[in-house]
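Hi everyone,

Forwarding the result from last night's run.
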Amino acid sequence: MISQIHYTVSFKEPQAHYAEIELQIVNFTEEFITLKMPTWTPGSYLIREYARHVESLTAYSDGKIVEHEKIDKNTWRVKNEKEGITIKYAIYGFETSVRTNFIDSDHAFLSSAATFMYIDNYIDHPITIEVKLPSQWSKISTGLQAVPNKENCFYAANFDILFDSPLEIGNQDIWHFEAAGIQHEFAMVGGGSYNKKRLTEDITKIIEVETKIWGENPNDRYVFITHNYHNGYGGLEHLNSTVLAASRNAYKIPAAYKNFLSLVAHEYFHLWNVKRLRPYALGPFNYDEENYTEGLWIMEGFTSYYDNLIVRRAGLYSVEEYLSALANEFNLVYNRAGHKIQSAALASFDTWIKQYRPDENSPNTSISYYNKGAMLAVALDLKIISDTDGKLRLDDVLKAAYQLFYKENERGFEEHEFKKLAEEITQVDLSEIFDAAHTTNELDYNSYFNRVGYSFINTSKDSNERSLGLKTHIVDGRILIKTTERNSAAWDAGLNVNDEIIAINNNRLDTASKDLDFILETSEIDEILDILIARDGLIRTVHTPVRKSSKETWVIRKNTDASPRQKELGEIWLSE
């Protein structure tokens, strides 16, 4: 007899943020069934302890309660019965993000890893899911395969596919279009100022540019789920879908609209880079604990390089807009003191404890592998373009890696294998750049931009801007220190996060004005300021010198004296 795993999802109290899950397990021979709730979701590298939202788990067989117990934080042990068993539990979801459940009277977004338990040792077992819609809802958007002739019923070949397939349930605005020969569904939640026709046309261009890079589109269907908020931004990739967060009224703002297109390009690029071409650690997964890799600077960093570049290639960014977006990657890294502490590879490895758990000292100790990886990616691209006289570029390396590791060998890769393949394909020594991913030593990026007729310039080098090296915010009418920069005047003087700044040089600060900015602008370098603060209710004065600001502003500019060859290579780099 064929064993079966079937879920039924219903919503008795969506207004209270609950979904009810019923799991039917039939024709398993084990004396006990071990159920586990994932602790994290692929693509978001943080232990989120989804089991904390499980309530009232009960096991039945033939209408009677059977023996069951919780044996650790995310594991339940259930006595099996020949008639099969039914598990019932409730899931609470009220967190607005692309990686967690959100349920209310308007709709339900279910992150599958946060919703469905799996049977231990049966991760490869097929699953069916039936969704019972409340009367006020009528639509379901998901990348899961629909079961023929069964309304609101879906199929996953295994739990890995299930956990990579979120569900949007409600009354979302849905439309369909074809791009690169693939059917696409767009589901908009929460309203917004979007123009369907323009959005469809622009995203179609992005999809076709990306498919051309990789040589094929691996799906026959893809789903975009976008949650529109008053103020939101973010995304999470899945095997044949993505979940995006956007600001509902920003679609008519040109810069914000193009940022959204860049987000679309980023998450869609992950169809290949991460979901298929990937380091060993990124699949198949252990859902109980961290899955470590130093390779996120390649997976997320390269994707962060390509997202804006793809918008440029699609003709949706001007050259100037693209160069500004690229320079921003550098500015985000160089204006964090942590770039002298943490390498791109270490940032990748430590993502589980740092990337998604920032605190007031994070800028001093860490960087983002997204930004730093993009910096390394552009260096690779420019070196390959210049050293092959424009015949090859990073695109060719990615396509070859996709073919070799994913298509032919059906496995992940080690970084040294990726580097070896890149050098074999291009016949270019890329050691300097790959080595830089593992140190805090900075490359001479200007030398790479010069190869294609551009310069990488620090425009703040001669600036006389003054700074204490702190940021403030106003809380309950008080000016509090939010961050202090490593090795700044504030850092050396011992000013702390959460100190309240009351007065400077016997002048009380007004929360409604920019007194602190004015004082800095009118002070001399090395002048000592007497800063009156309150720390944990105690008043004290801290003597702090004014220093030159360490803030850097980098730009990428076209060289007026570029050689014909450099100009030609630059056009290849930035061509549509």
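The chain has four domains: 4-171, 172-253, 272-460+563-576, 466-548.

Cheers,
N.
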